[in-house]
Write a structure and sequence with these properties.
alpha+beta; Arc Repressor Mutant, subunit A; Serine Threonine Protein Phosphatase 5, Tetratricopeptide repeat; 2 domains; four-stranded mixed beta sheet; three-stranded antiparallel beta sheet; 11 helices; 58% helix; 7% strand
């Protein structure tokens, strides 16, 4: 079973056509119960997620109606009569799904953690494939028709996963000598997070590995100007170390080797990737 929460909310089973959940209220209710399926979702919290601007007077009965739509959506012909994966228990809604269920956002998060491990171990091909797959899996928006505190928090978390995936994909591409991919991923990370120093360091790496030391230095200068003008701060020591490494370099890079000035980039990316909890999923299905 494959469940997608990016863009359209769908369930795919046994190679059949995807089943879509059309109700916007049911979508957000299903998404929260899915993400919290290991512990269950408290009824009042679910209601606040469905109606973030304030609960209706008849919210209890209205919530039952929303949950009924979700229950219909997750119940399949393979379930025994009278048995549903969605149950109410102790004031919580609990979604019981097969152990082998694959959720796109969880799959992407697990892939980024595995990509960081692979990169740290020098398995650049594996790291690049996993990170690039995560980037592809996260193309689009999480519940684009919904707003609210829980939805916005999830979007922020997924954006962080996406940025880490872009950075690892860029760094591993640089290590493999695939300069155009390295720069493309780094440029996207900078566009999405214009104050994120690790993204600029990835762009500096991509230029350096392509032999364009002047462009790498210019990227640092752009970052320094942005931070000074917008935030009134200077680049972090890791970024300064990468910049000083560029100034000391006498010749352009020619062959793969250990990272020197780029090691702070790897440290930041891998530590961040391991800080997020994720279900361990072996691979990311094609979008």
């Amino acid at each position: 079973m494959m469940i997608r929460l990016i863009n359209l909310v769908t369930i795919e089973t046994n190679g059949g056509p995807p089943r879509r959940l059309s109700s916007a209220q049911a979508q957000v209710a299903f998404a929260r119960m899915l993400v919290e399926r290991n512990v269950g979702t408290e009824r009042h919290q679910l209601a606040e997620t469905v109606w973030p601007e304030g609960l209706p007077d008849t919210w209890a009965s209205a919530l039952r109606s929303v949950v009924s739509r979700v229950r219909t959506f997750v119940t399949t012909s393979h379930d025994q009569p009278g048995v549903t994966p969605l149950v109410a228990q102790g004031g919580r809604y609990i979604l019981r799904l097969p152990q082998d269920v694959v959720v796109d956002v969880e799959c992407a998060e697990a892939a980024v953690t595995e990509a960081a491990d692979a990169f740290a171990n020098g398995s650049f091909v594996v790291a690049q494939q996993l990170a690039a797959g995560a980037v592809t899996s996260l193309r689009g928006s999480f519940l684009p028709s919904r707003e609210g505190e829980w939805v916005n928090t999830m979007r922020e978390q997924l954006e962080e996963v996406r940025l880490k995936a872009l950075e690892i994909a860029s760094l591993s591409s640089s290590s493999l000598g695939i300069e155009h991919h390295a720069l493309r991923y780094a440029e996207e990370a900078v566009r999405r997070a214009p104050f994120r120093e690790s993204a600029y360091r990835c762009r500096m790496t991509a230029h350096t590995r392509a032999g364009n030391r002047a462009e790498a230095i210019r990227s640092y200068q752009q970052l320094r100007e942005v931070l000074a003008e917008e935030l009134g701060i200077s680049p972090a020591p890791e970024t300064e170390a990468a910049y000083l490494g560029l100034l000391r370099a006498q010749e352009p890079w020619r062959a793969p080797g250990r990272f020197t000035a780029l090691e702070p980039v790897l440290t930041a990316v891998t530590e961040g990737a391991h800080g997020a909890s994720a279900h361990r999923v072996p691979s990311i299905p094609d979008a």
